[in-house]
Amino acid sequence: MRSVIDILDLSKEELQDLIARAEDIIADPEKYQDVCRHKKLATLFFEPSTRTRLSFEAAMYELGGNVLSVSSASSSSAAKGESVADTAKTVSCYADIIAMRHPKEGAAYVAAKNASVPVINAGDGGHLHPTQTLADLLTIWREKKRFTGLTIGLCGDLKFGRTVHSLISAMSRYEGNRFVLISPDELKVPSYVKNVLKEKEIPYVQTGDLMSVIGDLDILYMTRVQRERFFNEEDYLRLKDSYILTPDKMKSAREDLSVMHPLPRVNEISVAIDDDRRACYFKQVLNGKYMRMALILKLLYEAGSLKTLPKKGDSV
Amino acid sequence: MNVDSIQNGIVIDHIRAGQGMRLYDLLGLSDPELTVAIMKNVTSKKLGRKDIIKIDGITDVDLDVIGFVDPDATVNIIRDGKLIEKKSIEAPERLTNVLRCKNPRCISSTEQELTQIFVLSDRKSKTYRCLYCETKAE
Q1: Domain ranges, ordered by start, for chain B
Q2: A12, A51, A198, A238: which is the annotated catalytic residue?
C-alpha cells in the first residue's frame, strides 16, 4: 500500500504530476467536486494542529468525500494506551485513506506499515511534514515557474523546524539552487541536513545576520521559533524574537522576492508586510489545500479506491 | 598473559582496542551459562593494540552485531581444537533489536514492543540511523 511519510517518497516526476493536478484543480474545481464521493478520509490528530487538519478536511470535502475525525489524543483510544499500529489497523476498517499527525517521530511510518489503506504523514513530531513541503513547492512553482537556479533563504528556527529540513531535501534534488541558512547559533541546521548539501556539492552559506543576505534572495522562508520544541522555557524566551521581518528590512530585498512562512506566525513577520505583494504565506495555505487534494486523489487512485481520475485540462 | 585455547567455539579477533567490552555487551555474552574470555589491549602486529573475545561451546553469534561494532574484526570458528572457518564480516545494512533509540521523542521510545531497527545511512562513516526518527546511533 502506497503511503507518503517523507517528501522523498515522491519522485521528481510524481511531484511535477501533483503540481499539474493541483493547477488543474485550481483551473476547474467543479470538475473535481464529486470525484471522491462515498470515500472517507480519517484525520487522526494526536497533537493539536487545527490548520493542517482543516486543510485536509477542506481538501476532502472539495473532492466530494467525507471526513472522520479524531482531533486530540485525549479523546481517542491512544489515551487508553492503544498502540499506533493497532489504531492504524482499526481505522483502516472505517476509512479509505488516513491523514495522521502524531507527537512522536516515526509514528506515521508505524501507522503506514500497519494500515491497509494509504497513510499521509501530516506531521510526526519534529521530524517530517511532507504535505507542508507540497504546499511550499506549489507556491514556489506558481511564484517562480521553476525549481532550478534559485537562491533560497531559510530564516529562524532551522534546528527544530521540520518544514525547513523537508524543503531543503526537496529543493536539493534540483539543479543550480543555493541555500542561505539564517539563524542564531542555537538554532542552526542539524549536521545531517548540512551533510546532504555537502555530499551533493550544493552551495550554502550560514549566517546570523538576515540583513546582510536579504538582497540576494529569490525566496525567503521564515519560520517560527516554536515553544513546544524547547525543553527549557528560558531558551525559548531568549531566542523567540531573534529574527523579525519588518517593512524596513523588506526595503533591502529584491522586488521579485517571495516571502514564505509555514504559519502560524507569532511575530516573526510584521503584519504590515501582509499587504506587500511579495508576501506569499497566505497563498501557501491555499496551495497546501490544493496539493493535499492532488495527493489524496493520487493515493486513492493507486490504492484502487478510485477507478479513474479526471483528465487534466479537460473541460467539464 | 595466556588463556587456554578453546576446543569448540568462536574466537573474535582483531577487535579494535577498546571495543571488546561493547561487543561483549551487545552480543549478550554476560549470560552466566557462557564461558567467555575477554582479552583487552593486547599487542597486535596488525593493529598495534587489539581486543579478543573467546567464547567456548557455541558457534552461533550475531555477525551483524560484530559488523556494526567493528567490521574489521575477524571471526574464527573452532571445532575439535581446529580452525574450521573464518567468517567474513561487513557492516550490516540493518540492525534489528541490537540498539535502542535514545531519542525520547521517537515512537520506538514510547511503544516498547516495536522492533528496534537501525539502518546504515552512510557506509563510509559507518553511520546508523533509527528507522523511525532518523536519530544517529551512538
Answers
A1: 9-87, 94-130
A2: A51
